[in-house]
Recover the amino acids of this structure.
């Protein structure tokens, strides 16, 4: 098996190029939360479930008191980010799909 010769200029370009960034396939898009006004508009358009339903789904996934609920964008999708606190003081962050209310992650 013989190796093909590589042009010296091409070899230099390949070796001196900066390394490409490593992107994990399972990394979700960054989350950016909506303002109160934008949240009202999205709810009025019926693009997402109501916050009360999102709160119930989050409490089912991470039982406790809901401390905060926010409607956010993750890529092209809407998500609810719900913070709950258990009786023992542990805090959980539940991310739900905005349209279906399905739990995506619990941290």
């Amino acid at each position: 098996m013989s190796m093909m010769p590589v042009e010296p200029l091409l070899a230099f370009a390949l070796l001196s190029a900066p390394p490409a960034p490593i992107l994990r396939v399972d990394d979700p898009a960054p989350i950016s939360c909506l303002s109160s006004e934008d949240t009202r508009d999205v709810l009025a358009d019926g693009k997402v479930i109501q916050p009360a339903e999102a709160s119930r789904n989050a409490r089912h996934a991470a039982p406790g008191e809901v401390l905060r609920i926010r409607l956010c964008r993750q890529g092209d999708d809407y998500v609810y980010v719900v913070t709950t606190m258990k009786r023992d003081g542990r805090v959980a962050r539940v991310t739900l799909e905005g349209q279906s209310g399905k739990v995506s992650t619990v941290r």
